[in-house]
Amino acid sequence: MNDDTLITAVKEPFTDVHMTTSVEQIVRRGRAVRARRRIPGLAGALAVLAAAALAVTALLPASHPSGAQLAAWTVAQRPDGTIYVTIRQLRDPAGLQAKLRADGVPASVTFFGGQNPSCHAYPKASPALTKRVISPYHGSGRRYTVLVIHPSALPGNAGVLISASQVRHPGHGGAAIATLAGLVQASPPCTGS
User: Fold this and answer.
1) Which pTM value belongs to this model?
2) How far apart are CA 77 and CA 65, in angstroms?
3) 107-111 and 129-134 beta bridge pairing
4) Where are the beta strands (DSSP E) in the chain?
5) What is the chain's alpha carbon radius of gyration, rounded to the nearest angstrom?
6) 73-107: string of b/e by CB count within 10 Å (b at 16+)?
7) Average pLDDT over residues 51-67
8) Residue 128 contacts residue 60 (beta carbons within 8 Å)
């Protein structure tokens, strides 16, 4: 027996068998079956991602302060009532001022527009405000300012002034940014209260 004889012998019993299902219907059914088989895998992958997100959130330190986070600045209120203001970029002074006032700190914030002429320096020293300039990346030149406000130590008629301006260095031919933070006498035109 050769190959042609074998092929003919196998074909003859099936000559009366005809396919009534269209090729498009077969392809569509195959795709539907494959899609149904993928759903449990996708659901499992989504469940793993959700669990990982919950785990990361749960592992964050409980002492991490909550607060408004922007690229330019952060205002974080600690459980003891102390407010930390971190200024990374001098942008959106009105937003920073609004956030401080919403947190109960009478404040006047200006960047490069000059200080509010309605604000007058507070005549007495107070431990209500401290300022630190921090350079977290050694040698990178990136610096940011952290102001620590103790609202409970603010005198009753005082508010916080935060202002930044460009300062020229006559001997160096360059300019630098100076951030000023201090206490001012609280008044509606100056600090909103």
Assistant:
1) 0.56
2) 6
3) unpaired
4) 66-69, 73-77, 83-87, 107-111, 129-134, 144-149, 158-169, 174-185
5) 35
6) bbbbbeeeebbebbbeebebbeebbebbbebebbb
7) 62
8) no
pLDDT tens digit sequence for 130-184: 766 654 444 455 667 788 888 888 888 888 888 877 666 566 555 556 677 888 8
Tokens of 113: 């527009």
Highest mean pLDDT among 8-22, 28-42, 100-114, 137-151 belongs to 100-114
Tokens 């991602």 identify what position? Answer: 49
Q: Are 67 and 74 in contact (CB under 8 A)?
A: yes
Please give the full DSSP string across 28-77, using - where no structure is assigned: HHHHHHHHHHHHHHHHHHHHHHHHHHHHHHHHS-TTPPEEEE-SSEEEEE
Q: Which residue carries 């990136």 as its tokens? A: 142
Give domain limits for the chain.
3-59, 66-191
Beta bridge partners of 148: 84, 130
